[in-house]
Every structure is written in structure tokens, then in C-alpha cells.
Structure prediction request, 200 residues.
Amino acid sequence: MRALIVVDMQRDFMPGGPLGVDGADALVRPINVLTHDASYGLVVATQDWHPRTHMSFASQYEDQEEGDLVELEGLPQVLWPEHCVQCSEGAEFADGLDLARVQAIFRKGMDPMIDSYSGFFDNGRRRSTGLGDFLRGRGVTDVDVCGVATDYCVRFTALDAAGLGFRVRLIRDACAGVELQPGDVERALQDLREGGVQLV
Ligand code: VGL
Ligand code: ZN
Prediction:
């Protein structure tokens, strides 16, 4: 069975939001078409869901700025503007996103001391969200991934899915990237190809 994972299609990642991704709002329609595609036996979504004090927020440091790289509990951490704070409007799903066929939502990034780009594991692979077992338990063998951001959460979600043994495809036209550094999206796509993810 094939599943669709819709990654982090939340207000704060839409253009104009604190972590606005160019073109993210234009993904709402194609993703709505995908979630209604009968070839998916299962549709799930991920939701970035940070406490206000999350240590990936530059605002938690006196001497750091957005985009800076720090070390957090032994892991490299890019510092972001405050985004997707639990229960805030910015953490809600994007306007117009049709959740009718979404059977489960996996939240991530709740631990203030570790970020979680992947919908499966935190960045240190210390804890699982349960998404892998959920998919497997429902007989999923194949996974398609779409959403934001190609160079962060989409990338790590797709790579973890491949690492867990699912056959994974990235729906390129249904993804958009942050491109903090020029070339980040292209590097992410290369990484995905090397990780066994098919780009379609
Ligand atoms: C994301 C940066 C920080 C994403 C989430 O959804 O790609 N990027 N938190
Ligand atoms: Zn985040």
C-alpha cells in the first residue's frame, strides 16, 4: 500500500510568515489534489509543534542571530525565527489545506532541547514519533512525500522513510525549499537521490 506524507504545511511556513518559504502557498492546491488521489491508501501529515522556549529559536539567545549555527546537546543547530509555537495561529495548517483525508497528524519538535526536522525521529534519532510503526502497522510499503521545506523537513522525512525500508518518492512539484544558502535545495535533492529516494 502507498501512503502520502504531507510535511509541515503550516501558516508560519507560508510566504509572509516568520519562516516563510517562497511558493509554499502555491502548494496547497496540488497537495489537496494529491490527498484525494485514490492511489493513496493512507494520508498522514506532520506538524512542527514547538514550545515557545524551543532552543532552535534565535530569540532564546542573547548573542545569536537567525541563521547562526550553534551546538545544541552535541548536535549542530541552525537558529530560526520563532515559528510553529504550540497552539498559536502560526502552527495551524495553511489556509485552504484540505485535511479531510488526513488520517493522522504526527507532531514533532516538542522537546525544547532538540529539533526534529524529520517526521519520524528527532535530529539525534533519540526518539521516534511513532510514524514508522504507524505506517508499517497499516501495511504501508511505499511512501510519497510532499510539503515544506525541501531542504529541511521534507528532506529528512524522506531520507528516514527510505532508511526504514519504505520505497520513497518525492513529489517535486508539491515541495518548496527555504534555501537559506543558495544551492541548498539542489544539494538536498542530490542527497535524496543518493539516499534511494526517487524524484518524480
Ligand atoms: C522546518 C526549519 C525549522 C521545516 C521546521 O518544516 O522544514 N524548517 N523547523
Ligand atoms: Zn521548526
